[in-house]
Amino acid sequence: MMKTKLSEILQNFQKQDTLFKTPEQLLLCKGSCKRFRIEYNDPSKFKDEMIKLQQQYKTQMMIAAIPFDGRTKATIIVPEKLERYDKCRLIMDLQVTTHPLMIEQSQTIPDKEQFSEMVRKAINFINDQHFNKVVLARTLNFHLKDNPPISSWLTNLLYKNNQGYIFSMGTDDCQTLIGASPELLVKKDGAMVTINPLAGSRKQTFNKIKDAYLEKELLNSDKDLYEHKIVVDYMCEKLHPYLSDIEFNQRPEILYTDTMIHLSTVIKGKLTNNTMDALDLAQLLHPTPAICGEPQKQSLHFIQEIEPFNRGFYTGLVGYMDSNGDGEWVIAIRCAAIEETEVTLFAGAGIVNNSVPNSEYNEISAKLTTMLDAMELKE
Hints:
Layout: E1 4-5, H1 6-11, E2 18-21, E3 25-29, E4 33-38, H2 43-57, E5 61-66, E6 74-79, E7 82-86, E8 90-91, E9 103-109, H3 112-127, E10 133-144, H4 150-160, E11 165-170, E12 175-181, E13 184-189, E14 192-195, E15 198-203, H5 208-219, H6 222-239, E16 243-247, E17 253-256, E18 260-264, E19 267-271, H7 278-285, E20 293-294, H8 296-306, E21 317-322, E22 327-331, E23 335-339, E24 342-351, H9 357-375
Parallel strand pairs: 1-8
Antiparallel strand pairs: 2-3, 2-11, 3-7, 4-6, 5-6, 5-21, 9-10, 10-20, 10-24, 11-12, 12-23, 13-14, 13-22, 14-19, 15-18, 16-19, 17-18, 21-22, 23-24
């Protein structure tokens, strides 16, 4: 079996190329492709458009980025040539790269005081029973002197997040979305479906004793267990009409990423409806309480009213679907939007009735370190 060095794949990677790596495979679309920007106000219409394009271009696989809400258009990529590498064919020969950057300007939106006020307002709404949970985000904006070294950043993300879902794709002629998501929304392989929601987290210390203590703290935290249960219950309720033999652990497990410790539950089941494809399942679940809130409608409205920015593709979906309807969709977290020399990083935290504003702000800072470390930037 011929093997390929990962460094050779990334050597000539350009910002308009497309890469999507899962723990099992890597998909690469280099050079020319057809890119379609489609309204996302109606998920069913979007699905119809995607199927239509798949049939029109007779492509075996399509890659897409779906926004958090309908204020941003979705992007569908039809590759003219798609290269697929199974994990066993890849030689993981990457090393951390350095690429000094000149920052001309940086800004945090919202700032700490504004974010704390947002959290307090959210808690008031929860206490008034408008919703049970809401996820609030903030951004870091950098204006660089030179064009971003996307290939270098992607190399660092792949090196540091070997088990994550790594992606880089041009969402339009100007913007690139790049990230390292730890969260699989849904994977469909034949009739088998896998979902892996994350909710509840701590920042790694990289000290075994301290991290073991944080694991124990997470597994016994009423606040984090409640936040996690909201997400798992939502997933199971949504999936119950379409899956049989649903299995998951009654208590969450611990998942480590490059910088964080998360509560994680793997849910598996078998499709009873053979007409449903991976995109149907993803749209059924999106946006989940892990990145929006619960109930969905009320928390989504609150986010759109209170956050001082449009999330765009942050907490949207990135993934692929093949002509059989199989595919994988991950939640676009630990990510950045790049437009020429402007770089915007995103991260968020789940707010419940006993959330503490300062703790939530610090949790977001910890989550931002995945991208900051890869980009050699600082908050």
